[in-house]
Amino acid sequence: MLPIVTPAQMREIDEAAPEPVDELIERAGRRLARAARQMLGGVYGRRVLAIAGPGNNGADARVAARLLQNAGVHTMVVDPAETKLPDVDLVIDGAFGTGISRPYDAPATSSPVLAVDIPSGIDGLTGELVGRPMRASHTLTFAALKPGLLLQPGAEWTGTIEIADIGLSVNHTRSWLFTRSDAARSVPRRRPDDHKWRRAVLVVGGSAGMTGAPLLAAEAAFRSGAGYVRAQLPGCAPLTHRSEIVSEALPSDGWADTVLAHQERFHSVVLGPGLAPGSHREVQAVVDGLDAGMPVVVDGTALRLLGERPTLRPSVILTPHDGEFAALAGGAPGADRFTACRDLAMRTKATVLLKGPLTIIATPDGRTLAVGHGDARLAVAGSGDVLSGAIGAFAAAGIEPGLAAALGAWVHADAGNQLPALGGIASDLLPGLAHSLTELVGHQRRGHHAAN
Questions:
Q1: What's the confidence (pLDDT) of residue 208?
Q2: Which uninterrupted H or E stretch holds 322?
Q3: Which among 37, 56, 228, 367 could bridge 200 via Cys, Cβ 3.0 to 4.6 Å?
Q4: Each residue of 113-154: pLDDT tens digit?
């Protein structure tokens, strides 16, 4: 996992370093010069312009310019107030850093841009644009990722991102980016003596005209490794679309007791896809009546039915989009999405997965994981039902709730990356889940063989 720290935390890390600031700037400048040379592909005849502001980013850029000049590159250093840039082989953007406090309108350039820590003009905490940034081809960030590099719209301006180790300790960070390697390590493996009842998932949802949502969740659970899936459908007929899914019609009212009666046979519950809006008492009864350790993924209508500021437990995984988040928290998440997600998890004592271009998962102890693997191809009706089914399968396999949510989000995003640019629908994600898991297991095996 790659560490993520806020600008304020980064300042504390800088201040706690045993090395003097000048030494850290020299290290950062050396790494910056190395990245510049890689982008240039050589030094002979190359021209580099460094925009150097008044802070540490500017100092880093000046050190890099000096080292590049010594290596034979023709370098120029200009102030951030410069409005017109000459054509060069590379621009180093060291105008302002993560703590920018006033708008910066970057000069236009057609040259490749290497950003120092973050493209100038992006808020390091929220990713909001503060003025008009310079679009980077590559961003070299120091010690850890910053939220503004991952959150939109800032993420669109960073280019490729590289973390440079300059000797600063980030051991106390509580936020991480969940990567492909993390996903590969997290995939649950089947035991030689496995059977279907070891990973049984119960999906509760649906209503008149809304049976597609629980069907998607149930099939996603199967595609994500569940051995047995039952769908219980309040107020509608049993499913007939997939013969593998055992389905059961429930009455429109008073169905919570039926759900709870057989909970000992299941290892996770997915509650809410396609559920009728009038099921508040039943949703509350199911969540309250399940065993404390039973993972329950709450999605769709059930999120709104829990009411504002519910008190839950860590085995409950809430999966809201922004509108559902507002119903739970009493307001939209706002620009600082990491803090908003963490606050809701700590307040409700539940695990919270906040959907978005960057999916953020927070646990009640204040830890957060971020998944930025997917793109807008996931923005189709039913996509969230597929996600909740996948998380339910991983939770049923015994993965702790925060990690199950992160793995579900990553595999779901990877399935989305397999869709065409336009025209994909939620059911197209289903075979992609199995394909993604197969690839991750192969990655896991290759890593094991390499280690041995």
A1: 79
A2: helix 322-329
A3: 228
A4: 999 999 999 999 999 999 999 999 999 999 999 999 999 999
Q: How far apart are CA 275 and CA 211, in angstroms?
A: 9
CA distances from 172 to 9, 112, 211, 364 (A): 10, 35, 46, 17
Show the tokens assigned to 106. 């970057």
Residue found by looking up tokens 């200009």 in the block:
78
pLDDT 10s digits, 165-194: 999 999 999 999 999 999 999 998 877 777
Contact 302, 328 (CB under 8 A): no
**In whole angstroms, what is the distance from residue 394 CA to residue 156 CA?**
31
Look up residue 195 and give its amino acid: H
Domains identified in the chain and CATH numbers: 2-173 (3.40.50.10260), 180-451 (3.40.1190.20)
Angle, helices 56-70 vs 21-40, to 10°: value is 50
Place of tokens 């939109």: 152
Element (H or E) spanning 229, and its range? strand 228-234
The conformation of residue 145, written as its DSSP 8-state character, comes to B
